[in-house]
Every structure is written in C-alpha cells, then in structure tokens.
Design goal:
The longest helix is centred in the last third of the chain and has 26 residues. Helices cover about 40% and strands about 15% of the residues. The strands form 4 sheets. Strands 5-12-11-10-9-6-7-8 form an 8-stranded mixed beta sheet, sandwiched between helices. Strands 1-3-2 form a 3-stranded antiparallel beta sheet. Strands 13-16-15 form a 3-stranded antiparallel beta sheet, covered by helices on one side. The protein has 3 domains: about 60 residues, Winged helix-like DNA-binding domain superfamily/Winged helix DNA-binding domain (Arc Repressor Mutant, subunit A); about 120 residues, Alpha-Beta Complex (Aspartate Aminotransferase, domain 1); about 230 residues, 3-Layer(aba) Sandwich (Aspartate Aminotransferase, domain 2), CATH 3.40.640. The N and C termini lie far apart (about 65 Å). With about 475 residues, the protein is α/β, with parallel strands linked by helices.
C-alpha cells in the first residue's frame, strides 16, 4: 500500500509554451503561498507525482529542485519532502496584506516594481534551452561554487555588459540562488550573528529580512536622489549594503566622487561593501559608471541576478567576492549542504551558448526604454514630478503624504492595477512618500490603457493634497 500523500492541487497544460517543470513549480509555489498547501504538508515523491500527472520524472525532479533552492520545500531524511511555506530569511511578508477590493488578484494588472519583462522571452529559445539542460548528465557530487560553465558565462556577461573583468579559475565568481539568498549566505558565513550592517533607507526589504533572520543588526542609512549617503553611516558597522548603479527604490545613481568616498571609508574602517547590482544591465542614456567591485575588489562583494533580465523561474544569480569571502561561503555550503540549484544555471548556459541571452538583452533594453519614455512623458505632461534615472524598470512619483500614497494604491486597485508605495521600503518611519510604477511586467496594451487613469488619479491626489 502506498504511503505517498494525496496529489497536490496541480493542473498541467501541455498546449502552453511554458515547460511542464516550470508549470509544476509555479502551481506548487502558488498553492503554498495562498494556503492550499500549508507548512508541514508532505508532498508525494517525484516518482509518484510523475506517475499521477503522467509526466516524466525529470519534470517533477526539476520542479522540486527549483522549489528546494527557493526554500519552499525541504527534504527530511527517511521521511519525505515537506512544504515550508516561505523561503529561509523571509520570516516577514514581502508586502503588507491588502484590503479586499473589487478587483481580484488574478485580474490585477501588475505595475509594481521588481517584476521582469518575462513576456518578451523568446519561447522557442526558452524551450530549446530547457530541453538542452535536461540532456545534461546528472551530477554525482554537488558543485558548491556553481557549474564551471555557468561561472564562465557569468564572467563573460560581466565583462561585456558591466565592464567587470573577473577570473573563473580562482573561483572569484560563485553561483547563487539569487540576491536574497546570497545576502543570507554572506550574513551567515562571513559576517556572523551580532554583526551590524548599514542598509539603504528606503531600500530592499527582502535583503533586510534576510540579514535580520541571520541574526544581524540592521542600521538604516538615509539616501538622497544620488543614492547611498556615505556620511550617514555610523562608525561601528561591519558592512554596508547598497545598490549604487540604480538605487532601489528611488532610482538614483551614486556619483563617482561618492563611490570613491565609500571605498576609501570601507578600507579605512574595515567595512565589507555588498553591492547589489540587481538591474545594472538596464541603462538607456549613458554607459553605467564602473562597478564598486571594479574600483575595490578587496572590500566589495558584487551581487547580480537573472530575475530582472529574464525571470525568477531560473532561481540563478552570482557573487563576485574577495578570496576570503569566497572561501567562507564555500565552507558554509560544505558544512550545511546548501548550495544553488543547477537547473537554472544550465538553462542560462544554453541561452548564452546559442546567443539567445544577448539577443534578449538587446530587445529588453529597447523595449523598456520605449516603455519608460511612454510613462515619463505622460506623467510629466500632467505636471507630475518623476524620480529615477533613465534606467531600470520603474519610476517613482513623489507624493505629499502617507495618506496620499495609500489613496493612490487603493484607488488604482479599484480599477484593476497594482502599484506600490514607498512606505513598505522603510525599516523606520518613512521620510519620502510616493508611488512606484513598474512598466515591465504588464503588456504594452495594458500600459497604454491604464496609464491615463493612473495619471488622472495621481494628479487628482496631488491637487487634493
């Protein structure tokens, strides 16, 4: 008699272009997120689930591997695979609960920041990459630093698109599961419990939550329109976390003089600088300034991700770090048995091998540049201020108060659009108020149809304030 639990709520559609493994991972992730699967629920084995869904075991194994890398599931020796509900380091919700509205989550047009232009991925290239990745021989032992071919692709990518020259042989490049998981690893393996880290305020709260979950003390450091303010950092910190190429969420770029100031102070005071280059490839006006990692490879850890240039589906990112940091991270991975999943690494390698990654990046820059112009022109024509460099995939519209910010978010939701406010990007009391408008996740048609309503809502709220 089988001891496998009942099949989870999953439906796969073989008519879709999306690979079955991706569909399965998405379905299980959604079921865990909305409560249909709860923390502690046991999942069927990959073999049993494959039989029930009438798919290859390769499909279920790839989906489980992806979810395990993201932290949604965990295996217990001799017992099975269980839902853990949320990834490690995300003990706080990413967003506060929203009041119910007439528009359901499924019908909301996503204009919040952080989502990529996944609709622009060439589906033929995507399927080809997944098929080629599945043909690779299974690993006999884990590659703690990441697949050598993945690290070689990242080294080429960084040289070509970010001007950073790194070595692969000496393992200065490591694969990661993405920015948040990399921050968690640095906190646990390098900084250690009780260390103090200065973070941008407002800033990326998932990174903050990862640090807090690892036992670090987080000290907010105010930013201005030019990004991280070095003079705002207290003396007694062990590290600083910043996004100098495109500050998240305000969108400024740290000027050269401030970068030099940060590097000099890091060397003098013994800081480790964590450089989050989450969308540094997406610049539309001028070439980006040199990365902090290029200016000071001895004190800077550079983090990058495929989540913004492709899709979070891959669960793949990278870290470039000084040798001592690399050694500490690899040792931590050996001791804990935790490391980045290889499925997404293999897919990225295949996309790069056939030139599909480069072609996608060219299309992505062209598309998002046009979308940004459309959004900015509409806002400025209505007399609204717009913050943020000509880069990335979102802009910020400043507002007078927290109340105005809340009114715009709820008002947009009523006509079916999800936008974000600056309030949730603070650890402490918000000093800036405003709305973040993302323009990558939605379709062009949706952007054209909803933009006039959003502009009217923002203008009316500003006038009333």
């Amino acid at each position: 008699m089988s001891t496998d639990p009942p099949a989870p709520p999953v439906t796969l559609d073989r008519q879709l272009d999306t690979p079955l493994a991706v569909q399965l991972a998405d379905a299980l992730r959604s079921a865990a997120a909305d409560g249909r699967l709860r923390s502690g629920d046991r999942l069927p084995s990959t073999r049993a689930l494959a039989a029930r869904l009438k798919v290859s075991r390769t499909v279920t194994a790839a989906a489980y591997e992806q979810l395990h890398a993201e932290g949604w599931i965990a295996g217990k020796h001799g017992s099975g695979t269980y839902i853990t509900t949320a990834p490690p380091g995300s003990s706080l919700p990413d967003r506060p609960p929203r009041p119910r509205s007439t528009a359901t989550e499924r019908t909301l047009i996503d204009m919040s920041p952080g989502s990529p232009w996944a609709g622009g991925i060439d589906r033929a290239a995507w399927r080809r990459a997944w098929r080629a990745a599945a043909d690779a021989e299974p690993l006999l032992r884990p590659e703690r630093g990441g697949l050598p071919e993945f690290r070689a692709v990242i080294a080429e990518h960084l040289l070509r698109h970010r001007g950073l020259r790194v070595g692969v042989e000496d393992e200065t490049v490591l694969a990661t599961g993405g920015t948040t998981s990399a921050v968690f690893e640095l906190a646990a393996a390098v900084l250690g419990r009780g260390a103090t880290v200065a973070v941008e305020e407002p800033g990326y709260q998932r990174a903050v939550q990862a640090m807090t979950a690892a036992g670090l003390k987080v000290v907010p450091a105010p930013v201005d329109v030019e990004g991280f303010r070095v003079d705002s950092v207290p003396m007694a910190v062990n590290a600083v976390y910043c996004s100098p190429s495109h500050q998240y969420p305000l969108g400024g770029r740290m000027p050269a003089a401030r970068r030099v100031e940060l590097v000099e102070r890091a060397r003098r005071d013994g800081w480790l600088v964590i450089e989050d280059d989450y969308d540094g490839e997406l610049r539309y006006d001028v070439a980006p300034l040199p990365l902090l990692a290029a200016l000071a490879p001895d004190v800077v850890v550079h983090l990058g991700t495929t989540s913004k240039i492709l899709t979070p589906t891959l669960g793949a990112g990278w870290m470039v770090a000084p040798p001592a940091v690399v050694s500490a991270v690899l040792t931590h991975r050996d001791v804990t048995g935790i490391g980045p999943a290889v499925a997404g690494q293999r897919v990225l390698v295949e996309l790069a091998r056939h030139g599909d990654l480069g072609r996608h990046l060219r299309r992505l820059r062209r598309e998002l540049s046009e979308r940004r112009s459309l959004v900015v022109d509409a806002l400025q024509a209505a007399g609204l201020e717009v913050l943020g460099d000509d880069a990335g995939a979102h802009v910020v519209v400043p507002l007078e108060s927290a109340r105005a910010e809340r009114e715009v978010r709820l008002g947009a939701e009523k006509f079916g659009v999800r936008v974000d406010g600056l309030a949730r990007h603070y650890v402490g009391r918000p000093r800036w108020h405003g709305i973040l408008l993302g323009y990558a996740a939605c379709s062009r048609e949706a952007l054209h149809s909803t933009l006039p309503q959003l502009v009217d809502l923002l203008r009316a709220t500003n006038t009333a304030g």
